[in-house]
């Protein structure tokens, strides 16, 4: 027994050290309540172009899971709130869900975790009694498939279940949920899984009636007279984000649990709102997300857990314009559906991705597209669209192969590279698509490729309409974390 406890301690410390050494990461949520949702392949091309290496899906979207195969992108797949009840009441339903939505895609799609529901305790409290049973059934199905070390199970919860989050040191979960949360934490502890937290300083600030300054919500430095200090621990909090994470750690500790890491499954800031939402601005959203990225990627934790990185997922990739609610609810996206960024995002001091990057996005003709539509698109691009079509003229470097699809691809891409920063799309009556694969061949170099003839290219993640060009987002990868953890657990158990 002593050997088992010693090995468990060594494994926990080793895993924490490896996680820190590999680096924290920032990922992104992909919601699909979008009226002009790009195809799954185009979504993946956008992820690659922005070097996004971790994503969370709100469901088990078959098209996205398939498109994410062989990309190396880590994926959290979601059980919808509507599915929780059935899975919680039926182990066979849980097994069927795992077989259909996890086993069917591994290992080519790198599914690393399952998020069971979304803020179940605060949004559908009547389902709370079966939440942990659902998680247990899913975990047992993973064990049966020998995937429990590779795929973890957790459930995202909001800050709403912590009634008073400041000062963090006195924060506790809503006592009415103590039984369910205790079961949840015991499950996470037993399975070496993370607590999933949705933390929104935007709401903490806008609903706080001026208690905290805007700078505190946006990770901006505070003057000494405005420093936010926990009176019990004397810890200084430089951001509301850190205070929210720490309040959750203290709430977990209040139920006598430790060593359960927190991953922030949602955070962000809306960039546009209604007349009564003055803080939902592009400037604030840009400031929040850029500062958050730098904060997370420094690899440290909140004041009470300085050695535990806070891996985080931005809410969200696209504006979900079909969502209900206030105007701000529809405008959290960081990327337009045409692949251009809403505002510049950058990772630390890294160099922004430009058109000379291997991660460039290209616009090409679709395989099987209608020839007449391709010809019409080609004519428009070379005419009204203003594309440079000289290279596809007879005798020029991109003339061969002499077919409408090849010529259309060149013209489409030239138009797209010149105009997508101003809102130009890659559609052409449904005959075009974006791709991260460079279509250049021989001496025919497409605009955006590394071998283009001295062309001055716009950033591949240019701004939306009326916005100036800017930097793109470069998000750090640590795809080996789960693998290393699994290997460590395997060897530890093998020695028992």
Mean pLDDT: 83
Given helix and strand content, the structural type is alpha/beta
Count of domains: 2
User: In which range does the helix fraction lie?
Assistant: 25-40%
Q: Residue ranges: pLDDT <50 for 5 or more in a row?
A: 1-21, 347-359, 453-496
**N- and C-termini, Cα separation:** 9 Å
What string, H for helix and E for strand, traces the elements in order?
HEHEHEHHEHHEEHEHHEEHEHEEHHEH
Which outline best applies? Answer: globular
Q: Helix segment count?
A: 15
Q: Which percent band covers the strand fraction?
A: 5-15%
For the biggest β-sheet, the strand order reads: 5-4-3-2-1-11-10-7-6
Spatial extent as radius of gyration: 24 Å
CATH-assigned homologous superfamily of the largest domain: Glycosidases
Please tell me the CATH architecture of the largest domain by its name: Alpha-Beta Barrel
CATH C-level class of the largest domain: Alpha Beta
- Number of separate strands: 13
Domain X8: 361-446
GO molecular function: glucan endo-1,3-beta-D-glucosidase activity
GO cellular component, one term: plasma membrane
Pfam families: Glyco_hydro_17, X8
């Amino acid at each position: 027994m002593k050997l088992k406890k010693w090995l468990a301690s060594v494994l926990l410390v080793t895993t924490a050290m490896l996680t820190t050494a590999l680096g924290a990461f920032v990922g992104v949520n992909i919601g699909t309540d979008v009226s002009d949702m790009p195809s799954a392949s185009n979504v993946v091309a956008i992820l690659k172009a922005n070097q996004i290496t971790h994503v969370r899906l709100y469901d088990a979207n078959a098209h996205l899971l398939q498109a994410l195969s062989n990309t190396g992108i880590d994926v959290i797949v979601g059980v919808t709130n509507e599915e929780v009840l059935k899975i919680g009441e039926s182990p066979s339903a849980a097994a069927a869900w795992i077989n259909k939505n996890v086993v069917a895609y591994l290992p080519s799609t790198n599914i690393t975790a399952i998020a069971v529901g979304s803020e179940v305790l605060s949004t559908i409290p009547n389902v709370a009694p079966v939440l942990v049973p659902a998680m247990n059934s899913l975990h047992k199905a993973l064990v049966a498939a020998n995937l429990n070390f590779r795929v973890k199970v957790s459930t995202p919860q909001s800050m709403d279940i912590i009634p008073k989050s400041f000062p963090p040191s006195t924060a506790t979960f809503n006592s009415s949920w103590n039984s369910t949360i205790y079961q949840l934490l015991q499950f996470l502890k037993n399975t070496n899984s993370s607590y999933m937290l949705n933390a929104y300083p935007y709401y903490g600030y806008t609903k706080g009636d001026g208690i905290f300054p805007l700078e505190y919500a946006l990770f901006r430095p505070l003057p000494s007279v405005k420093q936010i200090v926990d009176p019990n621990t004397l810890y200084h909090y430089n951001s509301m984000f850190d205070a929210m994470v720490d309040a959750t750690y203290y709430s977990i500790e209040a139920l006598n649990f430790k060593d359960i890491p927190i991953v922030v499954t949602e955070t962000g800031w809306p960039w546009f709102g209604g007349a009564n939402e003055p803080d939902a601005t592009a400037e604030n959203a840009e400031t929040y997300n850029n500062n958050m990225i730098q904060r997370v990627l420094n690899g440290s934790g909140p004041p009470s857990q300085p050695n535990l990185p806070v891996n985080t997922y931005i809410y969200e990739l696209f504006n979900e314009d079909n969502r209900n609610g206030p105007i701000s609810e529809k405008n959290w996206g960081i990327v337009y559906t045409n692949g251009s960024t809403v505002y510049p995002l950058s990772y630390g001091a890294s160099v922004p991705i430009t058109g000379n990057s291997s991660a460039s996005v290209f616009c090409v003709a679709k395989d099987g597209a209608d020839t007449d539509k391709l010809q019409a698109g080609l004519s428009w691009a070379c005419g009204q669209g203003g594309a440079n079509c000289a290279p596809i003229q007879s005798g020029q470097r991109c003339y061969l192969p002499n077919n409408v699809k090849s010529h259309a691809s060149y013209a489409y891409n030239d138009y797209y590279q010149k105009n997508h920063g101003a809102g130009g799309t890659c559609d052409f009556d449904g005959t075009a698509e974006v791709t991260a694969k460079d279509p250049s061949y021989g001496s025919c170099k497409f605009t955006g490729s590394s071998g283009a003839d001295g062309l001055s290219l716009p950033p591949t993640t240019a701004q939306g309409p009326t916005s100036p060009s800017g930097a793109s987002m470069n998000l750090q990868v640590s795809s080996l974390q789960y693998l290393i953890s699994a290997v460590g657990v395997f060897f530890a158990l093998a020695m028992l």
